[in-house]
Amino acid sequence: MISSTNLRFSYSPQKKFSFPDIQCKDKETLLILGQSGKGKTTLLHLLALLLQPETGQISIAERPVTNLSPEEVTKIRAKNIGIIYQKPHFVSSLSVLDNILLSNYLADRKENIHKARLLAEKLGFAEHLPKKTSQLSQGEQQRVSIARALMNEPNVILADEPTSSLDDSNTQNVITLLKEQSASIGASLIVVTHDQRLKDEFSNQVHL
Amino acid sequence: MNVVKISLANLKEKKLNSFLSALLLTLGIGMISLLLLLNKQLDEQFRRNIRGIDMVVGAKGSPLQLILSSIYQIDAPTGNVLLAEVDALRKNPFVKTVIPLSMGDSYQGFRIVGTTLKYIEHFQAKISQGQLYNASMEVTIGSKVAAVSQLKIGDTFASSHGLDAEGEAHKEKKYKVTGIFEANGSVVDQLILTRLSSVWDVHAHEDEGTGKHEEHDDHEESEAGKQVTSALIQFRNPMGLMTIPRQINDNTSMQAALPSIEINRLFSLLGVGIETLRALALIIISIAGISVFISLYNSLKERKYEMALMLSMGATRTRLFLMLLLEGLMLAVIGYFAGIILSRAGLWLFSKAAEQDFHYSLRKFTILPEEIYLFFVALFIGFLASALPSLGIYKLNISRTLAEE
């Protein structure tokens, strides 16, 4: 579960953002829609604790997480938040499997190969595990990044434009998988997008 | 998964860049290490053989040539001098020992040197098989001669005229092997030693073709009218050095050469070449460092997003810094060991050539203490070249980097 109140952020005096309050309970989903320049990515980065808000509060799993030290923030993020980026990026020198296991390693957890294989099978890229990520198609790469976000069983899954570079059938596929998987681990799912195709997929919506 | 595995994967991902960096380091380290090895072993070989020899007298000519031919047996002799003149030196109160040498013939490229027992004493050569030559035309051979020529005790052989293997053979008179010396690392290993009278005998036969010259006296040093090639002189005290060389050069038909001076001169001549090569090696190592720097700097620019990604997934900046540092250090370690192996291969080739031409071998492949310092130099270069670009990781803005791409 994740919630925010009175979030404000400014890159410069001319470029200020203030965001509506957000709440997304465990197993719930939330769609944040907005055109470019409305601060979608900024909001996502604030929720992902990658940016510090000027004012306002964020709490994850009913614990306030603002005003913490960078080390604590890094730990909380690794433990509680799975992020899926607009363009799937990976450590290009490592295999698909190692990229997924990387989230265990960087969060100082035991590497769970069994779980990685299970997720790969569910998400349909098990045969690609030994390959390099660059050998996969965009849709496959996006599914790998979903698996990576799920590896530590986070409390919150944040997805930034996860479908913007995918065709209709892949979009449908990815959104279904996201919803299924976050529900299966009892996480809150927040999708930030300008993709109008997703409007009908989510009942809870916030417009920026 | 660990930092080492990721670093290795990154090096493998940029195979050609890594290869170039490691290759440059290998060449630089290899050159320096080879120079160290050669310098040390040549120095050892040269110093070991001049120990205790204060002066060499022989026919006038190049003093360096006299030293090289009489002590190291690697150059042609300068000519002959009268034994009587050499023996006259014994009367000088500053002179302790005079060891006359007579050479000019060889067998399979190994020199036959006529001398006195003092020579064997001086080089502390010990007999390993058989016994020391006792009569004219008997020889005792060095360990390397025995190994290469396959001569055994009791074998006879005809020497050939001149110091290379292709000389005309002295067929009428044959030498007989009576013993073999133990290997002791000195010049004796590669010599065939005999009495002075043997050399005279062989050549007397050549010249006259008649008559017997069986010499049975134990005072061959006192032979008059005979000629020798040169003589090694030891002084009783350093005062000899001050006066005797000048006396000889001014008042006799001989010249006096001082080994320590000539060898220092030889090394200072070689030194210029060695210094140049060393400078070249240092330049190559610096370029290797720059190559590591550039390739890490570039790959870091390309991998900026990867770094931000790993930071957002819970990596600390220090962990990523170590990972990048490790890439440079691993290249340095690979380059160092490849360089050490390369230098051994180089030494082996050099030694093969030197053995063929001079019968000297330079085959000590152990790690020198200087090479351990070299290891730390290599690590330092790897550290510096990877730390400088990797410091950027501490300035990386995660949110901006992730948002930009």
Word description of this protein:
Chain B: It is a multi-pass membrane protein. The complex is a heterodimer of chains A (208) and B (405). Chain A has 208 residues and is of the alpha/beta class. Chain A has one domain (2-207): P-loop containing nucleotide triphosphate hydrolases (Rossmann fold, 3-Layer(aba) Sandwich). Chain A is 34% helix and 24% strand. The longest helix of chain A is centred in the last third of the chain and has 17 residues, at 168-184. The model of chain A has no long low-confidence stretch (mean pLDDT 88). By secondary structure, chain B is of the alpha+beta class. Chain B has two domains: 3-46 and 273-404, no CATH class; 55-257, no CATH class. In chain B, 56% of the residues lie in helices and 15% in strands. Chain B contains 13 helices and 13 strands. In chain B, the strands form two sheets. In chain B, strands 1, 3, 4, 5, 6, 7, 8, 9, 10, 12 and 13 form an eleven-stranded mixed sheet that branches. In chain B, strands 2-11 form a two-stranded antiparallel sheet. In chain B, strand 3 (95-107) and strand 4 (110-115) form a beta hairpin. In chain B, helix 2 (15-50) crosses helix 11 (317-358) and helix 9 packs parallel to helix 12. Chain B is elongated and about 100 Å long. The two termini of chain B are 27 Å apart. Classes of the chains: A alpha/beta (208), B alpha+beta (405). The A-B interface holds A 41-42, 45, 48, 50-51, 71, 74-75, 77-79, 83, 85, 87, 89-94, 98, 101-108, 111 and B 1-2, 5-6, 9-10, 12-13, 303, 305-306, 309-316, 398-399, 402-403, 405.
